[in-house]
Design brief:
Elements lengths: L1 H17 L5 E10 L3 E3 L11 E3 L3 E10 L10 E10 L2 E3 L2 E17 L4 E11 L1 E4 L1 H4 L8 H4 L3 E18 L3 E17 L6 E19 L4
Length: 217
């Protein structure tokens, strides 16, 4: 699954580089996520709320923004669709790594100048995944009996980001985003029944991007 997603992202880059410039802009972005907060949704005791600190991580993304139909908006507004893929990151006191991949819509509103500040937002669907160690891990305080004979399934829900940044000229930009991801960790137990735990991940990302194609959007 992970290899397939990376291949799709790679094909998106190739298509973006070869797409006619008159149709809009292709955007590539790399980002580093700071240590965030991962909430498992499970509460075992008064001292344990299911929330853990996460390790820093990295992500890569690609998006396409078509040319705005009104010339008055082309220098100030950018909307498009894209996908971002996170590389796995660990969680404090939990074995293994997890990640989210997010197809999304994006919007940026900029002040038209050579060095241009902008505000941005994204919203989409999250694909929640983890390695074998992550899905087999025991949460602190739940005990071995909770995991005996159980299997874990991960599902994604919504994801959204808010932030802003600065364009340097028409192509290169730096961006800071506050990111929120939602998913579900379903533990299927043969005797006791299933446990569906709502899971969230929040982090701040520092990204750099480059726009290919027609400028002055």
């Amino acid at each position: 699954m992970r290899i397939t997603l990376l291949r799709l992202l790679g094909w998106a880059v190739v298509l973006g580089l070869t797409a006619p410039a008159a149709h809009g802009q292709f955007i590539v972005r790399v980002a580093g996520e700071l240590s965030g907060r991962h909430n498992s949704g499970l509460v075992a005791s008064d001292r344990f709320d299911g929330a853990f600190d996460t390790e820093p991580g990295f992500s890569v993304g690609a998006a396409f923004a078509p040319e705005m139909p009104l010339s008055a908006l082309r220098s100030a507004v950018q909307v498009g669709i894209g996908v971002e893929h996170q590389f796995g990151r660990g969680v404090q006191d939990v074995e293994g790594d997890f990640r989210f991949t997010t197809p999304h819509a994006l919007a940026r509103l900029r002040y038209d100048a050579r060095v241009s500040p902008f505000v941005s937002g994204r919203g989409g669907f999250s694909l929640f995944a983890g390695d074998d160690a992550y899905t087999a891990s025991e949460y602190e305080g739940l005990g071995p009996s909770f995991r005996e004979g159980a299997t874990v399934q991960l599902r994604g829900f919504v994801a959204y980001s808010l932030g802003g940044g600065v364009f340097f000229g028409d192509r290169f930009f730096l961006e800071v985003l506050w990111n929120h991801y939602e998913g579900s960790r379903i533990t299927r137990r043969p005797v006791e029944g299933d446990v569906d735990a709502f899971t969230t991940y929040r982090t701040v990302s520092l990204g750099a991007g480059y726009r290919l194609g027609k400028t002055r959007l």
